[in-house]
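Researcher: Can you fold this with magnesium ion in place?
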Amino acid sequence: MTLIVTFNMRKGGTMKTTLVRNLADGCARAGLKTIVVDADSQHTLTMTMRVNPVDALTTLLTDDTVEWGDVLAEVPEEFSGAQREYFYLLPTFDGQQAIENQAGIPDRIYERFQELRGYADVVLVDTSPGAGNIHAGFYQVSDGIFLPCLCELESVLGLTATLNHLYTISQSAPVAPVMGIIPNHFDASEMVQQINHKYIVDHYAQYGRIFNPIRDKTIWRNASQNRQSVYRMTEHKSYNIRKEAKIAVAELQPILDTILKAVQA
Ligand SMILES: Nc1ncnc2c1ncn2[C@@H]1O[C@H](COP(=O)(O)OP(=O)(O)O)[C@@H](O)[C@H]1O
Ligand SMILES: [Mg+2]
């Protein structure tokens, strides 16, 4: 089946884009037909995957004559390390802001992304830190939602806000279940983080599986600056970078396995 998953969190800087970018390469390397969607007008995902930022998402949602094949961009070999047979990105740009509050956008998202069913194996959607029309559309068309968060108060509040938004929308339309809450940037030597982590485990497990925290590591930033996936960084010439990249890949594995299993279901 085609699995559409959306990454969202009201708070910014919680690893949404980093997770989407790297998990996408994990899916593509596993042989899945993979489409990544940049639905954040800041277009970080587009840039860090080496694709030109253009208003493809906006065009797709506002122009009926446009087809998916017209707007998808191939993910360059330099990002993944090898040309994957079917690895595409739907870019975005500033023009997205103009449609963010437009009526009918959630329905348009629903219609257009349903068209992907049967074509791609997996569609990973990166959203902006917020809770608007665009998020509402993806909650409805997705099969699952991942909520990445930090082990700090602001993220805990962000989790509550995001879950509230989901609940509100679910009163008028079916929404996807939470496939996982992913604590990250974790530093076990910080007492406050440990306390917040425990709080998240104790209070949010009822909403979705809580994954083991992803540690705070420079490799994630390095890979983003190099505009390469952490998988590709495991082939780096420096031994230390290869080692760190392998740790990063291992930390992604349980999330990747969850996605792969859901695709096979
Ligand atoms: N586990 C991590 N450890 C250290 N830095 C990270 C980690 N995950 C992401 N980063 C860095 O944190 C910043 C924010 O991550 P990003 O994925 O862009 O967040 P979001 O998309 O949620 O706003 C980026 O500079 C990224 O490279
Ligand atoms: Mg982002």
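Model: Folded with magnesium ion in place. Residues 12-18, 44, 129, 184-185, 214, 216-217, 220-221, 224 surround adenosine-5'-diphosphate (ligand 1) (CB under 6 Å).
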